[in-house]
Design goal:
The chain is 32% helix and 20% strand. By secondary structure, the protein is α/β, with parallel strands linked by helices. It folds into two domains: 5-128, 3-Layer(aba) Sandwich (Rossmann fold), CATH 3.40.50; 153-317, Dihydrodipicolinate Reductase, domain 2 (2-Layer Sandwich), CATH 3.30.360.10. The structure holds NADPH dihydro-nicotinamide-adenine-dinucleotide phosphate and N-acetyl-L-glutamyl 5-phosphate. Residues 81, 102-103, 151-152, 181, 185-186, 214, 236, 238 line the site of N-acetyl-L-glutamyl 5-phosphate. One of its GO terms (molecular function) is N-acetyl-gamma-glutamyl-phosphate reductase activity.
Length: 349
Amino acid sequence: MTKRIRAAIVGATGYTGAELARLLLGHPNVELTVLVGASKAGQPVERVLPSLAGIVRGEVEAFDADRIASRADVAFCGLPHGASAPIVKELRARGVIVFDLSADFRLVDRAVHREWYGDDHAPELAKSAVYGMPELHRDALRTADLVAVPGCYPTATILPLAPLFAKGLVEEGPVIVDAKSGVSGAGRAPSERTHFSETTEGFRAYKIAGAHRHTPEIEQEISRVGARDVRIVFTPHLVPMTRGILSTSYLRVKPGVDAARCTAEARAFFEGSPSVFVHDAGACPDTLWVRGSNRAHVSYALDARTGFVIAQGAIDNLVKGASGQALQCMNVRFGLPEGTGLAMPAAWP
Ligand SMILES: NC(=O)C1=CN([C@@H]2O[C@H](COP(=O)(O)OP(=O)(O)OC[C@H]3O[C@@H](n4cnc5c(N)ncnc54)[C@H](OP(=O)(O)O)[C@@H]3O)[C@@H](O)[C@H]2O)C=CC1
Ligand SMILES: CC(=O)N[C@@H](CCC(=O)OP(=O)(O)O)C(=O)O
């Protein structure tokens, strides 16, 4: 018999929420039963999310944990960090399986979490969270009731780096990570930083020199896979496009390691992972090749003059970087083929 999974989206009125709705509506095993908002609760869905007009009727609901628990087996939470943890706690207390897209449960060391986020609303619950990157944590996800879905920059960065650290190909020392994101990565709420006239036709870095909160998240996962303490120099940039992240890392590799070896190791590492495509050595992935898809494109090149390997990862921040990855985790959790409902190629060009 086909499995039916009833799903709620909490934070449905934001960008990751809208993307979750798009993906869940196309998933053969999912019935989307509840759409929850905050300031937009009570408004017609078609007004708040015009892309769902004529597809989803009714109103955006206010959060009510009991109502969600009676109508959904799983909840996807696309809420600001800090606001998410108390809501997740209420849902977990009622047995709802939660895929949390915020940063509230990603950091395993809660002292590090407090250092970067200034609070910790649910330290006990955090112990049960599994980092939601199937390519690294597939087995743990099969039984996880709380999944901490990774951030967008971490996804684009960790995927190309993980195979190299797993195989011990990287020399000691920090890795330089230079990443560029589309503006939807900042969410739907208007801000000066993302105002059209201050964003379009320009290109700048932000939160440089160890100031961005994705730094410890990337370090956590790379250190874990490499079984050693890894530090990164992380420079995020905002580029005038709506979707997409390109993360470019520079690292020194052990003598004799070249791009062909990195490529071969990555292909072996991602064997059986439907969302990751490893290009031939030297390719330059484009965010347009993944836009709207749950795919990550990865590639390696060696700069023979300096001995640096350049590792690139391209994703759609809203899909593999957020909502698609959450759904991929749900598939793993429910024993479905990992790519169910996620097979669509990019909307290219
Ligand atoms: N955008 C991206 O590319 C990615 C985002 N993320 C993370 O996912 C989460 C959601 O991001 P995104 O969709 O972009 O954000 P948006 O700002 O687009 O949406 C936020 C959502 O949360 C609701 N909300 C806002 N404040 C509160 C509150 N205090 N209590 C309850 N609900 C609230 C809003 O409801 P209403 O509109 O009704 O007020 C809205 O539905 C964030 O933690 C973000 O960092 C992770 C990976 C990538
Ligand atoms: C362009 C832009 O502003 N991006 C966001 C990252 C979005 C994201 O993935 O953040 P979470 O860790 O909250 O999930 C930022 O730099 O804060």
